[in-house]
Amino acid sequence: MDNREFKFEEMKMIVGIGKDYFGFYFRSVILFFAVLGVLFKMFLDSAPGSDARLAIFIAGQLVCVAGVVGTLGAYPKYMLVAKRCKALAADLSIPEVYFPGTTRVAKEFLLGLIIVSALWALLYRMI
After folding, report:
1. Contact status, residue 12 vs residue 88, Cβ threshold 8 Å
2. Of 53, 109, 122, 126, which one's alpha carbon is 20 to 30 angstroms from that of 94?
3. Residues with Cβ within 8 Å of residue 66, at least 6 apart in sequence
């Protein structure tokens, strides 16, 4: 196998890895909103001023912080894969097809997580 074939195989592997990263991230965002929705329902159903409401609020804040920190922590790792893909695409003289759109969508999801986290923090006034 010559160097160009090796690079092409590496490119195919990186594209597969990147596709998996985005799928995992998308499913985790869906899970984030599902868990936060259940916590919100439980928060509204509990009595105002109760310890249960405070505990649910804290659990929701922890979920929000974990979502934002997890996304910010994964971004540098994903960008390493994106940089290698870009270098391989330049070496192979092929277009880099999917990383810019994927990172844009991930940034939009991150903005959504931050907005939802800020809105969740506003529930503190309802405790």
Report:
1. no
2. 109
3. none
Give pairs for 40-47: CB < 8 Å, separation 24+: 40/120, 40/123, 43/123, 43/126
What confidence tier does 75 reach under pLDDT thresholds 50, 70, 90? confident
Q: Helix crossing, 99-122 with 3-45: angle to 10°? A: 20
Name the pTM for this structure: 0.76
The full set of domain ranges for the chain reads: 3-126
Distance CA 61, CA 43 (A): 12
Query: Of all residues in the chain, what percent carry a pLDDT higher than 90?
Result: 35
Question: Cβ neighbours of residue 27 under 8 Å, at least 6 residues apart?
Answer: none
